[in-house]
Specification:
Residues 435-459 have low confidence and may be disordered. The protein has helices at 12-23, 47-55, 59-64, 107-120, 171-175, 244-250, 254-264, 267-272, 317-336, 348-370, 372-382, 384-391, 402-410, 416-421, 453-456, and strands at residues 2-8, 28-32, 69-70, 72-76, 84-87, 89-91, 97-99, 102-103, 124-135, 141-148, 155-164, 182-184, 190-198, 215-221, 224-230, 236-243, 277-278, 283-287, 290-292, 296-297, 300-302, 308-309. The protein folds into two domains: 2-41 and 108-185 and 288-366 and 425-456, FAD/NAD(P)-binding domain (3-Layer(bba) Sandwich); 187-287, D-Amino Acid Oxidase, Chain A, domain 2 (2-Layer Sandwich), CATH 3.30.9.100. The protein is an alpha+beta fold and 459 residues long.
């Protein structure tokens, strides 16, 4: 079987990539091993995520499905002075801010909608498991070997470009050989415990910062926080993120720990959930950061979480996955036309562009964790518009902004990013709160991290 592009993963990264490629007249095949609809966490779209959905022509469908319309993010700190609100905004052609909205989504429904739409627009879906990339004589990628669902036989899909859209499974990086090694950061010391609840108290929607569908973040202490994301008129996704050591110290069952934390982690969350009524089981996942070196090369690109994940606190993950799918499409088109085929990394410009954008988010998040009071002050009084841009994932143009410069100054990172961009590898060197000097050797080894258990242990 032959196609222009083969995509491993049928989540938002893969389906957005497929739809943007279709706009360029490029055929794609999506390989997905799970049957949709399937459960998935990560239900909130930033303003930038809403923009990508609109650019895909799906705005009317989103309203038709009655996904909750999110007006912004409200962060409740330890005091009123440490609490703040960031509205969802857009920028017009003159770069002037205007009020906008985006959506909260139930991923089982949203992801299936995206997959169905990608197929309707010409992409071919093959249920199955991706096994390994196919390599040509010159070392470039020429497709993928898969095992179709309900079959013991393998098949090969020939393609000029392979997109790894496998999310945090980081399929290519874990196979080793094509990408550089995978660095795991300091957030592997946290876990996220979550479920869905009903009977909550929401705001009345009278103003944008009181809209009943807004994301709420409740900050207890460093790396100890909760999320509150409305999924429909009744159900709210609520997650508790804590250091794993804290969870182990309590010696409680997962459910007992979660229920107790709902009323102890923050008084505002207790007020909003006066009676705890769960509508599904309690889940747990490791909360970690990672970064894959050299995530682009001859005939392949890793998209979204398949190459880098920073921190889920402000819901950037799904937005970044779809954005990168859009950004990759024109580079793939030029590659298919024969441009840069002789270069060691034909997608080097795309790789560096993506790294610079995610670095903006990483510096924003690190400043929030390391300097929470200063961060709140900057949001409120000095750089509100610039910080609003970051929360909306407007992170590629008009950067570095004065707000980003201020964050980097607070983090003692002035000049460090620029130096990393000058390296021949064109990737962002891990710095700051996530960098473990004792783990630096992983960047130099030829043996990639095979799974999160390499650092976390069995779970």
């Amino acid at each position: 079987m032959k196609t222009d592009v083969v995509i491993v993963g049928g989540g938002p990264a893969g389906t957005a990539s497929a739809m943007f490629l279709a706009r360029e007249g490029i055929k794609s095949v999506i390989v997905e091993q799970e049957k949709f609809p399937r459960y998935h966490i990560g239900e909130s779209l930033t303003g930038g995520g809403g923009q990508v959905v609109r650019q895909l022509g799906l705005e009317a469908e989103m309203y038709k499905r009655k996904y909750p319309c999110k007006q912004g993010v409200k962060v409740y700190g330890q005091s009123k002075a440490g609490s703040w609100f960031v509205p969802v905004t857009g920028r017009d052609a003159d770069w002037k801010l205007f009020p906008w909205d985006t959506w909260q989504v139930r991923r089982s429904d949203f992801d299936k909608m995206m997959l169905d739409e990608a197929v309707a627009r010409g992409s071919t879906l093959i249920p199955g498991k991706a096994l390994k990339p196919i390599l040509k004589k010159d070392g470039s990628v020429g497709g993928v070997q898969i095992r179709p669902m309900d079959s013991e036989k393998t098949m090969e899909i020939e393609a000029d470009v392979l997109l790894d859209c496998s999310g945090q499974a980081t399929w290519l990086a874990n196979l080793g050989g094509l990408t550089g090694p995978k660095y795991l950061g300091s957030y592997d010391k946290q876990i996220a415990i979550f479920s869905q609840v009903v009977g909550t108290i929401r705001d009345d929607g009278a103003t944008r910062d009181q809209h009943k569908a807004n994301t709420l973040i409740l900050y207890a202490s460093k790396f100890h926080w909760a999320w509150f994301i409305p999924l429909d008129e009744d159900v709210v996704s609520v997650g508790i993120v804590v250091p794993s050591a804290y969870f182990l110290e309590k010696k409680e069952s997962l459910r007992d720990f979660y229920i107790r934390e709902l009323h102890e982690i923050h008084p505002e969350l207790k007020r909003r959930i006066p009676e705890i009524k769960l509508v599904e089981s309690v889940h747990v996942i490791p909360n970690y950061s990672f970064q894959v070196k050299k995530f682009c090369g001859k005939g392949f690109i890793c998209v979204g979480d398949a190459h880098r994940f920073v921190d889920p606190i402000f819901s950037f993950g799904m937005t970044m996955a779809m954005w990168e799918g859009q950004l990759a499409a024109p580079h793939i088109k030029s590659y298919l036309s024969g441009e840069r085929r002789d270069q060691p990394n034909p997608f080097a410009d795309h790789q560096l562009y993506c790294e610079k954008g995610i670095d903006v988010l990483e510096d924003l998040i690190d400043c929030f964790w390391e300097q929470p009071l200063a961060f709140a002050l900057l949001v409120y009084t000095r750089y509100t518009d610039f910080i609003t841009d970051m929360f909306a994932t407007r992170i590629y143009d008009h950067q570095p902004s004065p707000a980003l410069d201020a964050f980097r100054k607070l983090l003692n990172r002035e000049g460090l990013r620029e130096k990393s961009y000058e390296t021949e590898d064109l990737y962002s060197v891990p710095i700051g709160a996530r960098f473990h000097p004792e783990r630096a050797a992983i960047w130099e080894t030829n043996s990639p991290v095979q799974s999160t258990e390499d650092w976390l242990g069995p779970r």
